[in-house]
Design brief:
The structure is a homotetramer of 251-residue chains. Chain A has 251 residues and is mostly helical. The termini of chain A are far apart. In chain A, strands 1-2-3 form a 3-stranded antiparallel sheet. The first copy, chain A, has 12 helices and 3 strands. The interface between A and B is large, with 81 and 81 residues.
Chain lengths: 251, 251, 251, 251
């Protein structure tokens, strides 16, 4: 029979993972600290909290992404149910969106687990991706060139906080190797950097997407509030209808 | 034509509501501060941040709620798509779950907007609810008796932070009146207190539910992680089948 | 303790609402008949089936609706999970989309329940809506003028099938009154007609939206299949970004 | 630039995939025929319609599945939004639920595409699955033993309709081989049979899950209606809380 370590309550108290909600958590920890605690089971130190805050802040908002579109269309169709509009937008945080973060983190995890000379591992990984003409996850950006402006500040922050270790080290070696085999500079992108930062603070690759979901929920709430003022959803629907003409099979 | 104030980007920068993501936000603000900024358009001061953190920390996790069940069932059915499992669980944050928070905040907003003697307003509101045998939203708890243990610490924290004003004042008058007309003590519950706290820091009633959604996303991620270890979903499905027997119309 | 009338199974049989799935349903009834049976508890006769088929056929597909956009955006973001893309699109079938169908059906239900002269009821209902400058639900169409081409064929089909009774009668009286008080012709729209048809076959107003959901699921599946071939989602996202410019608060 | 073949409309007509909605579809085709038309682009003949109806009827309802639980929990939490409750339940139709249908269909597709002696192909496929101790998708059932009661009627119906061809032939050879290598009888289950039937009528493996989604939407609507009468959701939540006790990490 299953048990749970997450929470329990009685008439006069609420307990979350062994801590008293009122005595230990409310007013004592930030929401970022609680998020770390709820997902890893450990309370973060100040450096880990600072790094997680930086990751959550970076992931929250990217403008009119597909997820923001979904949220705005739902906010217009189902008024008064913000949770439905946020839920719809969050569902877009799948392989396409979060894939490079998870994929890069998984490469770094595997490289660190393998041990040995990081250079050898990175040479092999980059060569394998080039052989099948796939980009190395966490590298390249369609828009931010030559460098993703978020990457270096994120890595520097981790170094300043003293959490930078084998994963960020591996990412830097991988970057050198990506450039060398490509014969030109390809940026580490923000999701690659965040994958490495999360590993350094003990958030494994398979939970990283969940952190993006938490973060993005705040951004999508902002879109719902703006949508209630500016009403873009019907304009988007109209634009789409005009832009995508009907062509019968017979034509 | 609609415009957006939320975000823009060019090759070397990302701008969020007029601030440079790299220069002004990453490493400079916490995720809680960013959430406030994205939803109100203003950067919070330290007191507002502390109050919002307390609200988000209180709302994140309540054990095996209906939302946690939905998330666990989805995590089991759609492996590897945490965003789908979180989205499903978040959809439960509707009128039933968030209603008392919104309802209580709306009563407080209306009372403050009306001006006049809070006592007169609260007497009338309580009497109106009693006349139709409806509980005053934000009061009473099925389980936490005689007092919800989260309420007083939340209100005290707001007072200590210096943000307690007309809304918390109105809530305290309302509480006196609820007890007087009921002829016994009925607790202010945590969602009533949080509704008042959010109003004090400038988060209106109609956005309060969104804050619960952001907060709950972290709790649900914790449930997915535990579900991947303890596998409760099929046990829940089996229990339910056994507990709810089939009875034909003909029987 | 709750019980269920819906389904049970043992090693050698499956029973659905008292009928044997293999002996009574598979190969014996159409999916439309089963849908009626699952939602009303009664097996429809041929006329009711024909009317429900006509309603489901009418509601399935309307081109690039907001729901189709949501589905296409999700299909692009979460490849290989058609159920997620369909679910997202279906969530748009809320008050805005299905509201006129439910609203019109509720008016007809109330009028028939009231008894008395339909003319008196309809006069009053139209006047009440005009007094608050609200359209009567089920009347008017932004695009199909002077008449929604779907309405008359739907009503005629119900009459030909012999199911037209008090609800369609009430709708026709209501239409006369809408025109009279407006001083011009306003079409009964397809959702108004469908609301009346569903009532005639015993599907109440509060279940009508569910029929739209079932029907629309097939249309959205068609959009996912086309999206996999023509890839419109990213074009839609790009168009939207271009169409909705960023304006800082400071500008 | 993308185009669409799905639908268009003008003031006096609606066109769906080249057919006039009013003249060609309403009252002329069943919802099952329209579903086939919307997903394949072809209007089915009578035999194909009968087979698709049988598949949709079989998949619609299975009692208190995880999807039904999700739908009931959402119906209780978000009253009045049936589309949200149906959407949540449909999201469970992922690899776990629909995987054997898709997996079996993919095996049959590959075997038919390979040509050659079906026996050789099936021997190899079964041996490969046994080597990695994986069940052959579409075979075995935890509950329906020795035979899934739905399978033979579905296959017989396809044969009676004259649509049984290479795919059902391949499934029967596969069944012989599964039994031979297992040394005992293992049933073809309903999802295996449905995968084969859908292939025979031209619905490929990657669309089969979508048909399950359409079908299941009707079943879930039935659960919402029953839930509104019998209120099982809170009982389920209570049962779960009792069944899954809290154990602190410290214990």
């Amino acid at each position: 029979m299953a048990t749970t370590k997450i929470a329990t309550a009685d008439a006069t108290s609420v307990t979350i993972r062994g801590k008293d909600l009122v005595g230990d958590l409310i007013g004592k920890v930030s929401f970022t600290e609680l998020t770390y605690f709820l997902t890893t089971g450990r309370m973060p130190d100040a450096a880990q909290t600072r790094v997680l805050d930086a990751c959550l802040v970076t992931l929250a908002e990217h403008g009119f992404t597909p997820g923001a579109l979904v949220t705005r269309l739902l906010a217009d169709s189902v008024p008064g149910q913000v949770q439905v509009a946020i839920a719809g937008g969050l569902m877009t945080v799948g392989e396409v969106f979060a894939g490079t973060m998870e994929g890069c983190a998984a490469l770094l995890e595997a490289g660190v687990a393998e041990g040995g000379d990081p250079s050898d591992y990175c040479k092999r990984v980059v060569a394998e991706h080039r052989a099948v003409k796939k980009p190395v996850p966490g590298f390249g950006h369609g828009f931010h060139k030559p460098d993703d402006p978020r990457t270096e500040p994120l890595l520097t922050l981790a170094e300043d906080c003293g959490v930078a270790g084998k994963y960020i080290g591996m990412l830097r070696v991988l970057a050198t190797e990506v450039d060398a085999q490509a014969g030109r500079h390809i940026t580490i992108n923000a999701t690659g950097a965040i994958g490495a930062l999360l590993l350094e603070i003990g958030v494994p690759a398979n939970i990283a997407r969940g952190m993006a979901v938490v973060s993005r929920s705040a951004g999508l709430l902002g879109h719902i509030i703006e949508e209630s003022e500016t009403r873009s959803a019907r304009e988007i629907a109209r634009l789409t209808k005009e832009a995508i003409p009907y062509r019968s099979d017979d034509q």
